[in-house]
Write a structure and sequence with these properties.
Number of domains: 1
Distance between the termini: 50 Å
Number of strands: 0
Radius of gyration: 26 Å
Strand content: under 5%
Order of helices and strands: HH
């Protein structure tokens, strides 16, 4: 779901940027507004990238930290039963 949303936002901004980048001659603040808009879009893209990277990192960390279940005909239970102190 997030990938679809992210792809949609990236595509929509890619199509709108050339239109919005045109500066109107009758508005003296148009260039500043255009730069402000582009800056906001870059910030949003950076935030989305950061969140996506963080989510992927958490997924990979959880997968790496989850041990594979030891089941099957040759499964061996824990040896000992002590606390491991004095070994």
């Amino acid at each position: 779901m997030r990938l679809i949303l992210l792809a949609g936002l990236c595509l929509s901004s890619a199509f709108l940027t050339p239109v919005l980048a045109q500066v109107r001659q009758d508005n003296p603040n148009a260039a500043n507004q255009s730069m402000e808009y582009n800056s906001q879009m870059r910030s949003l893209r950076q935030e989305q990238t950061t969140q996506s990277d963080r989510l992927q990192m958490n997924i990979e960390r959880n997968q790496a930290a989850t041990p594979a279940p030891n089941t099957g005909p040759n499964a061996i239970g824990p040896i000992g039963g002590g606390t491991g102190v004095g070994r």
